[in-house]
Amino acid sequence: MKKILDETAPLWGICPFSEIKDNLIDCRAKSRLPLNARSVIMMAFPYLLDDEYYKDSNISKYSVPADYHPIVYARLSAAVEKLREKYPGDEFEFFADNSPVPEVRAACIAGIGTIGSNSLLITEKYGSFVFLGEIVTTLVLAGTGGELTGCIHCGRCTEACPGNAIRDGKIDKEKCLSYITQKKGELTEEEKKMIRESGCIWGCDICQNVCPLNKGASKTAITEFRETAVARAEDVNSIEGRAFAWRGEKVIKRNIDLQEEQ
Ligand code: B12
pTM of whole model > 0.90? Predict the structure, then answer.
């Protein structure tokens, strides 16, 4: 088991399913949860690249590599295949992002990191610049963490957030710039101003960039992220395969136009 998980992700841990069963997120993928789920194998995939990749970038750091979903799914799927072979009497289902598992909470309980005031999981080695994914199984595995733990609450993310979206460790989604860059339709003048001033047409890294626990975060060794990096979204013709492609051309074009208006 350990060998399979080590080959899949540099950081992993076990969260007993009972610890999150009352906090599941309602989504279509929920129907894929094994009926008798007992353990969640949480995994973290670091994505921070060398500084040079972010020079003149106009998209948030998580969207500089190619869309992480297929990359993480490929790794999780390979692991699940091996686990099913090794434990034929048990069930294994993998998820990432589009998941009923509250991933930050589960990864914290698995001992992979602490929860920041910005609501993100912060790991010791890679800071918060990690994607989360998981394998939910009927196997009973010993938990690797303990209590939910919080960050040092220095308040820098709360102060720096352009939309004042951070309150007591919760994000007011409507005010979060990352959410606003995804929002369809007409934006308010205030929302447009936030996008223009951020210099970012997709996502937002402000609450992560100011976090002292992210100082000196290690860079990713995952070649699928390193080799697919593109720092800018210049036009809607080049969005295929990128993290923002799912949102469609209209929203991306609107955001690019907002930057160009300046
Ligand atoms: C919806 C969503 C969003 C929404 C809303 C985010 C939000 N924080 O509510 C929007 C679009 C704004 C968003 C933005 C981003 N997201 Co997002 N998002 C999700 C998604 C799909 C669900 C989140 C959710 O609803 N959680 C469940 C609810 C129930 O959480 P909650 O009630 O708020 O619980 C929190 C608090 O109560 C608190 N808490 C509870 N108990 C305790 C106890 C203690 C002691 C403490 C301290 C705190 C605490 O921590 C909980 C966990 O955050 C997850 C994937 C997933 N399936 O989990 C990704 C996910 C959280 N997002 C991710 C990322 C990368 C981002 C962005 C950084 C992308 C970007 N650069 O723009 C931003 C960050 C914005 C921010 N500061 O949150 C990653 C985070 C990785 C990490 N290191 O934590 C995830 C895990 C996706 C993934 N698979 O990698 N996201």
Answer: yes
